[in-house]
Amino acid sequence: MCADYLLELASQLEFETVSACDTRDILEQLLESLAEHSAVTDIPVDEVVLANLHLALHQLDAIARGRGRPAINIPFHVIEGYLLHGFNVKEISELFGVTRQTIHRRMNDNGLRKSDVYSALTQEELDAVIGEIQQSHPHTGYRMMKSFLQARGLLVQTTRVRDSLRRIDPIGTEVRALANRTLRRRQYSVPAPNAMWHIDGNHKLIRWRFLVHGGIDGFSRLIVYLSAATNNRAATVLEAFIGAVNKYGLPSRVRSDKGGENMEVAQFMVESRGENRDSHITGRSVHNQRIERLWRDVYIQVLDQFHILFSNLEREGMLNPDDEGHLFALHWAFLPQLRRQLAFFMDAWNLHGLRTAGSQSPYQLWASSRHHEDPDQVEADYGIDWEGPYGFDDLGHQAGQVEVPQVQLQRHLTEEDMARLPDPNVHFMDAIDIYKATLQQLMQPRSEVDEGGSDA
């Protein structure tokens, strides 16, 4: 909505229906409002947005003084940030509407070359980092591995990443190469970023009452949110959705299945975007292929290791999914782990190059294509990839509304009880110990717990 308003304001300024002075006052008020919102919500304002608004104010000042269009001074840290996100000089110049020479000149003024932003890791150090990442993400190809590194703040040349993977995992590299040569690419079309978001829930870990809620921008394939929860409530889905809106802006339309967990998002979209325009489109999960395709990668890269671990705990008699105490301990130990793994995957995914988009990343596509027209009305099949993958839940039928009961312990845990629980913020390999310690504490009689606390 803010972006639409600014575009309308720019149009009014172009046709002189509003003065440069009034426009400047409006932008100053907008900056103040953004600062207040950031202070209240503790959500930082995007530095690129602030830089563009200050640049607009600078230009308006020059117009008011009769100097014509001023020299554009793009903040150096903004250029550096875009380079670290994988943008090249040509793409940065197009974002700001300047020539490549302007960007090169700004880089030269600050002694920056593109090669300077690459990591100086030695071959041995790079192999060690990639080997560590591959332990948690064993099916990762070189594009995604490069993005995992980037999510850790390490920008590494593609050739170095590919060569490292060949040294570490030669067989897996050949298998992935063969699979890529036989993969059939699908066609999909929406006009612009934020034209259509696809949202859905993933139930691969529902046996242990874990659910994953996700949303993806249809145009750019940018993951806008990926969250783990132990419930399937509509309020939980809306909270994740609004968090994404605060970060990436309000989409024009949303597509989801007809599950009840999406009802509050549907209401939010109709209230925000209006009625009788398909602000929220529902249908069978087989028509939401954009995110169904994403779930395959989420499972391979993240959920599979949790599924294997929990299944092994069951086989060894250490976990009973019908025991409320076991589930509480499992959630306490592994929910933070699952959330961290999903966040890491999301950061890497949004930075990885897409073959079908000239190796541009989802973030690059989202950031560089945001000024296209969005249709006022759409057809019923808008945002459907008819040749895309079908979406099925673990039970073998199309996923609908899924009820997930809240864990009910035999005794209520007080604040003191919760404070005594072991800290779950540990390395993934140590999470089983947290699970065991939590379970042992839950099984301890209240009297023993109180005595132990008094002895301390």
UniProtKB/TrEMBL annotation:
<feature type="domain" description="Integrase catalytic">
    <location>
        <begin position="189"/>
        <end position="370"/>
    </location>
</feature>
<protein>
    <recommendedName>
        <fullName>Integrase catalytic domain-containing protein</fullName>
    </recommendedName>
</protein>
<dbReference type="Pfam" id="PF24764">
    <property type="entry name" value="rva_4"/>
</dbReference>
<dbReference type="GO" id="GO:0003676">
    <property type="term" value="F:nucleic acid binding"/>
</dbReference>
<dbReference type="GO" id="GO:0015074">
    <property type="term" value="P:DNA integration"/>
</dbReference>
<dbReference type="InterPro" id="IPR001584">
    <property type="entry name" value="Integrase_cat-core"/>
</dbReference>
<dbReference type="InterPro" id="IPR012337">
    <property type="entry name" value="RNaseH-like_sf"/>
</dbReference>
<dbReference type="InterPro" id="IPR036397">
    <property type="entry name" value="RNaseH_sf"/>
</dbReference>
<dbReference type="InterPro" id="IPR058913">
    <property type="entry name" value="Integrase_dom_put"/>
</dbReference>
